Amino acid sequence: MTATTDPADSERASPDEPMEAQFGPHRFAAGEGGGSEQFRGARLEAADVRGARFIDCDLTGVTIRDGWLVNVSVSGYLSNVTVNGVDVADFVSAELDRRHPERVQFREARTADDVRALWDTIERLWAQATARAGQLPAAAVNQQVNEEWSFAQTLRHLVFITDAWASRTVLDEEMPYHPLGLPQSWYPAAATGALGIDLTAQPGYTEILAARADRMAVMRRIVADQTDDSLGRPCQRSPAPGYPDEERTVIGCIAVVIDEEIEHYRFAVRDLAVLEAGATRP
Fold first, then answer.
1. Annotated domain spans of the chain
2. Helix 151-162 and helix 250-280: axis angle, to 10°?
3. Is the dihedral of CA 64, 67, 69, 72 positive or negative?
4. What distance in Å separates the CA atoms of residue 110 and residue 251, rounded to the nearest whole number?
5. How much is the pLDDT for 234?
6. What is the DSSP code string of 194-260?
């Protein structure tokens, strides 16, 4: 199974013919105010860039030579990334597979039974993560770690993902969006409002959990009804207004939901570990 948003699906024709800039693995556009080419081809020599943050940037072809990399954090899509002459992309992927075997299960899923087994895994993992979050002080579920989404915001985003990539596409519902859903940060605010979503809302955690449980039940019903043949059925609607007009199938849309579930679970448990450490610190 491969998500339709997977950047690995888009290969450059040749090293001399770069594709358009890719602003993060899960974007299809730079968004409002994004896409600056100000630093394209820039050369920084003997520059102090300590504490700099590169968020959803295309770093293709970037060279860091004789740099001082201490307390550096890198996340994103990796391909042909060399550190001190060693290509580390395959090593990183293998280590992530070891830590998160659901990634392997995702890639190997082919049949409707595979999809159902994978969704069972998703439900089990998130039940464990939600239980961990429930052991933290109440305010922790709204606490952001390193400017990432909080646990509550992550659940709200997954509500939106289910609405967009399952209810809207697979179930062909015109306006399935829950008002507390949280689209990706670059989705236009005006378009979000047109979906009935209030970005300024501050829903309670109990309300978020209820919406999340409802949307997970939607996914369970969808995968329960699938056959190997039905997975190839074309979907008529885009996930939301403004998304690219392209062909999508049931299996492709389900793959996006599951890919989002897997990736955000990985981020969530990473940040839960930080919050747990802080909660136990004297």
1. 101-280
2. 170
3. negative
4. 9
5. 98
6. HTT--TT----HHHHHHHHHHHHHHHHHHHHT--TTGGGPEE-S-SSTTS----EEHHHHHHHHHHH
Burial bucket for residue 249 (CB in 10 Å: 0-12, 13-18, 19+): middle
Better-predicted residue by pLDDT, 27 or 272: 272
Question: What residue type is 106 in one-letter code?
Answer: F
Three-state secondary-structure class, residue 82: strand
In angstroms, the CA 204 to CA 181 distance is 13
Distance CA 23, CA 152 (A): 25
Give residue 77's identity as a one-letter amino acid code.
Y
CB 275 within 8 A of CB 145: yes
Let me know the angle formed at the C-alpha of 115 by 114 and 117, rounded to the nearest 5 degrees. 65
What CATH number was assigned to the domain covering residues 101-280?
Answer: 1.20.120.450
Are 27 and 186 contacting, i.e. CB atoms less than 8 angstroms apart? yes
Predicted model pTM: 0.88
What tokens does 243 get? 């998304």
CB of 176 closer than 8 Å to CB of 163: yes
Q: How confident is the model at residue 106 (pLDDT cuts 50, 70, 90)?
A: very high
Beta bridge partners of 14: 17
